[in-house]
Amino acid sequence: MMLARTFVARSSCNVSASTGFRHRFFAAGGSQLGAGATPSIGRWMSSVTDTTDEGSGDGDKATPEITTAEDTTTTAAPPSKESIDKISSDLRPSEVVTELNRHIVGQNDAKRAVAIAMRNRWRRRQLPQYLRKEVTPRNVLLVGPTGCGKTEVARRMAMMNDAPFIKVEATKFTEVGYHGRDVDSIIRDLMDSAMKLVKERHNKENREQAKKLVEERILDILSGPSSGSAARGRESFRDMLQQGLLDDQEIEIDVPNREKNPNEYDAGNNPQAAMMADIMQKLTSGGKKQSSERKKLPISEAREIIMEMELERLVENVDLRKSAVTAVEQTGIVFIDEIDKICSSREGFSSRSADASAEGVQRDLLPLVEGTTINTKHGNINTDYILFIASGSFHSVKVSDMLPELQGRLPIRVELAGLTEDDLYRILTEPVANLVHQQVELIGAEGVKLEFEDDAVREIARMAAQLNKTVENIGARRLHTVMERIMENISFEAAEMEEDVVMTVTKELVAERLKDVTMKADVSRYIL
């Protein structure tokens, strides 16, 4: 007989205090990383360096403080930053799949295809230069019903990926010649994200140096410039500053004025106009320094402002564009979602659609996916080695309705299965941030303990699967609808309840709250 399993809110954020709770959520996936993981971005500069070094043979390099996944299986604390850095730097397929398993249920074929594609980027960088030019990415097409996890795979990839990454909706673009965004803006946006990542990476490397400069500038304001006679007083201020005793002391600093220049021209997505606007801004400024405003602020607030100023000064002499262009061309990844929405059925009277977001966009995507040169405000970008991953549900159209040339440029096709009742139950219980755990913690913020019986969780999964069959199949998104319906009264009344009150969600409560929904669904089947 199956024992009822309850999910209880704890006063602290560490949900691993209960042995059974930890076993349910963390031990099921083997060597899991734990909850609260926030994969680091900007881990890809070392890999970018490998693209310019032909002799880079060993790519499995790691910093000395990195801990392996096995080191975190026996601890209840969230994963250390080093363990996530290991995934970001190595991108081994098994580790990528393990990380995706923490958030996505099932769809192993899609996880393996994405993990292999990401690992092949690293493998290509280890090849000799003459062979590296011949190896192109194997683009991926994910096909499956809505709500089965296609977009979630892309979102989790962006969190763990160590390369420039961008996710776009195919329906946002129009054919060249129509008003709207053309597909070339995909690469421009990817380049902008790469510039941001490069800058963040340099800021992280220079932060320790900037901290020393910030300390010296604050000491100059407090005790004046360094001199032999004032050395003792300066060191006294330094000790108090490091101990935080002067955080409330107010000092005057020059804060850069970040207001937009009224004469500045907004170039939009036009790279030529953006370059011209940049040149005109430099000419009109006449080499003058950026305007600033003198403000009196506490040292605790002034420290952050001076830190930003020092980091900007340290990055001025670094060629960020060159590093960003190399990163985009060699390791960039573009995820194109809803690609089936720009397809039209070929079984009608005409195979040509009048929609500006239909086959014309497919034709514009052909050279982009095959390999071409895109002009951006940061320089020309070659798309030959950018990895493209497309996804679509293909409800009203088939994959064969895509242009044959575009099908050929997406050679790896992965079919994602629809979600069953058992899959919906696993979605409610297995992922780290599952819906049950979210509701428990939200109500726990009011000091109320919320419990879900195992029978109630299974009933939620059963009702969601039934609604997907009788109304419309929207996959895992149906769970949000069902859960909010059940939690409506509890969420409304929780703020008025006394602390330590225990609220239990039972199977009977789930059936009562969803009775009207299922009745309407049954009746609607017989209405003409």
What attributes characterize this protein structure?
about 525 residues, alpha/beta, 5-stranded parallel β-sheet, 11 strands, flat, disordered N terminus
Instruction: Compute the average pLDDT.
Output: 75
Number of extended strands: 11
Count the DSSP helices.
20
**Share of residues in strands:** 5-15%
Task: Categorize the overall geometry.
Answer: flat
Task: Provide the low-confidence segments as ranges.
Answer: 1-88, 262-266
Quote the distance from N terminus to C terminus: 45 Å
Q: Helix content range of the residues, please?
A: 40-55%
Structural class: alpha/beta
* Gyration radius, in Å: 28 Å
For the report, how would you describe the main beta sheet?
Answer: 5 strands, parallel
Strand order of the largest sheet: 2-5-8-1-9
Q: What can you see in these coordinates?
A:
The structure is a single chain. The protein is α/β, with parallel strands linked by helices and 528 residues long. Helices cover 47% and strands 10% of the residues. The chain has helices at 19-25, 45-52, 81-90, 93-101, 108-125, 129-132, 150-160, 184-223, 231-242, 271-285, 299-315, 320-331, 359-370, 404-408, 421-429, 435-444, 454-470, 477-493, 507-513, 515-524; strands spanning 140-143, 165-169, 250-256, 292-298, 333-337, 373-376, 379-382, 387-392, 412-415, 449-452, 502-505. The strands form 4 sheets. Strands 2-5-8-1-9 form a 5-stranded parallel beta sheet, sandwiched between helices. Strands 3-4 form a two-stranded antiparallel sheet. The protein has a two-stranded antiparallel ribbon with strand order 6-7. β6 and β7 (379-382) form a beta hairpin. α17 (454-470) crosses α18 (477-493). It is flat, with a radius of gyration of 28 Å. The two termini are 45 Å apart.
